[in-house]
Amino acid sequence: MVARRTGIRGRSAAVAALDLLRAGVDSAPESRLRLLIHHAGLPGPEINQWITGSDGRAISCPDLQYRRLRIALEYEGEHHLLDPAQWHRDIERDERLRQLGWVVLRFTKQHLRPENRAGTAEKVRFALSARGWQPGWPA
User: Fold this and answer.
1) Which phi and psi angles does 11 have, rounded to 5°?
2) Residue 139 domain-assigned (yes or no)
3) pLDDT less than 50: residues of the chain
4) Cα–Cα distance measured from residue 63 to residue 34, given in angstroms and rounded to the nearest whole number
5) Helices (H), strands (E): how many in the chain?
6) What total number of domains does the chain contain?
């Protein structure tokens, strides 16, 4: 539709944004985290893909992940903290991943604020580097 609409205001921005869209994202903050990673020049993570144990049992479906490097990224909305049952499930989920050798990075809306974006990108970059990734390599 965007390609057919010539001469409209904002068309070039819309066309550029199309390349950044990803199917399967659960929330706008998860997309903002993924775009922050993208704009920092880091490799793009997988979105909402199940991690299974050696027995094929579903372990977790992180918001974002680098499967080969075993890094999971979770965006935690406020309901994760305000709902005791959800908070418990999150802790148990993270522990299961850590037992399988995964690094779990957790983020909140504070990590996405303009003054914190550089630190957030650095947190991801550090985890990638600690797992052997180097700039220019796929993750």
Assistant:
1) -60, -45
2) no
3) 17-18, 21
4) 10
5) 5, 6
6) 1
* Residue 84 maps to a domain: yes
Q: Classify the C-alpha dihedral 95-96-101-103 as positive or negative.
A: negative
Tell me the two tokens of residue 123.
């947190």
> Which phi and psi angles does 33 have, rounded to 5°?
-65, -45
**pLDDT tens sequence across 118-134:** 999 999 999 999 999 99
Give the strand order in the sheet containing 64-66: 46-47, 64-66, 71-75, 103-107
Domain CATH for 78 = 3.40.960.10
Span 111-120, pLDDT tens digits: 999 999 999 9
Whole-prediction pTM: 0.82
CA distances from 98 to 48, 60, 104, 105, 130 (A): 18, 11, 7, 11, 15
Burial of 138 (0-12, 13-18, 19+ CB in 10 A): exposed
